[in-house]
Amino acid sequence: MKTTPLLALAFLAGPLAPWASPEVAEAQPPATEIVLENASIRVTLLIFVPGGATGWHQGIEGEIGIIAEGELTIESPTGRQSLQPGGAYWMPGLTPHDVRNESPRPAKMWDILLKRCD
Length: 118
Prior knowledge:
The structure is a single chain. The protein is mainly beta. It has a single domain, classed as Jelly Rolls (Sandwich). Helix content is 8%, strand content 41%. It contains one helix and eight strands, in the order H-E-E-E-E-E-E-E-E.
């Protein structure tokens, strides 16, 4: 059987490719409670169990997050940061990001989506 070098290389590299990695269990998404929503803004309280996460996502709207309790880790293409109560972040629209509770205690965060500014 004749094998081309490229095909042999693809076969050997297959297990190393990111898309070939085994499935990772998804974290539990946060519980949500929308406290205000209108045409301009949506304010949501997110409650994260230990190990909980939003998963990578992005929205059209700009987003402000304010940590109310516990500690949360925010990761985006610009980096990774851990925030304590009172800490806040700004996420421009269309920026992929993930918010995770890597601590052993529950955490709460206010999530403010700016739909439009008039």
